[in-house]
Amino acid sequence: MTTNTPRKSHHHGNLRAALVQAGIDILGSEGLPGLTLRKCAARAGVSHAAPAHHFDGVDGLRIAIACEGFDRFRAAMLDAAAQSPATPRAQLKAIARGYLAFARAEPALYDLIFSFRGKLGLNDALELASAPAYQVLRDTCAPFVPPGTDPVVIETQVWALMHGYVLLLFSGRFHETGAPDDGILALLDRVGTDPTP
């Protein structure tokens, strides 16, 4: 005798990735307060106990999601750079466009990846995940570092410009006027040059 009982889906070794994607989906629709292990399990179609085998509580899930977020963030910058001329200035503006595109496409994930220092602290997994994304910034800024200058100075200028701009976007600062991306990107023309008197 056969039964027509539906079978629960199995992820054949991809359960961790499925739970991370479920978490990203929940993060995008409900924000960080809505992100729970139980909701991720339900969205992934597994038992509510399944995430415990992959994550050390909800903080472990958040860290895993942030690691995936850093990978996507890096990919967005590199994809934009690949579509631009290979000159140093064009590449700098390209990664900035990729930075903005990622933040706009996945604002909750962007918030999450930059939220850990004050809350959970950066653990080894996050350090490893964030380093390649930062390396994109470092490599792209390198041609603009004046001799005798610490590269972190230029890297911080570019990062602060882009991150600050994103925070203003998220706060609704440009709601009525529209976001002046071209004006912000034009400021990158001044990176690594002497200011006019």
TrEMBL record:
<dbReference type="InterPro" id="IPR025996">
    <property type="entry name" value="MT1864/Rv1816-like_C"/>
</dbReference>
<protein>
    <submittedName>
        <fullName>TetR/AcrR family transcriptional regulator</fullName>
    </submittedName>
</protein>
<dbReference type="InterPro" id="IPR036271">
    <property type="entry name" value="Tet_transcr_reg_TetR-rel_C_sf"/>
</dbReference>
<feature type="domain" description="HTH tetR-type">
    <location>
        <begin position="13"/>
        <end position="73"/>
    </location>
</feature>
<keyword id="KW-0805">Transcription regulation</keyword>
<keyword id="KW-0238">DNA-binding</keyword>
<dbReference type="Pfam" id="PF13305">
    <property type="entry name" value="TetR_C_33"/>
</dbReference>
<dbReference type="InterPro" id="IPR001647">
    <property type="entry name" value="HTH_TetR"/>
</dbReference>
<dbReference type="InterPro" id="IPR050109">
    <property type="entry name" value="HTH-type_TetR-like_transc_reg"/>
</dbReference>
<dbReference type="InterPro" id="IPR009057">
    <property type="entry name" value="Homeodomain-like_sf"/>
</dbReference>
<keyword id="KW-0804">Transcription</keyword>
<feature type="DNA-binding region" description="H-T-H motif">
    <location>
        <begin position="36"/>
        <end position="55"/>
    </location>
</feature>
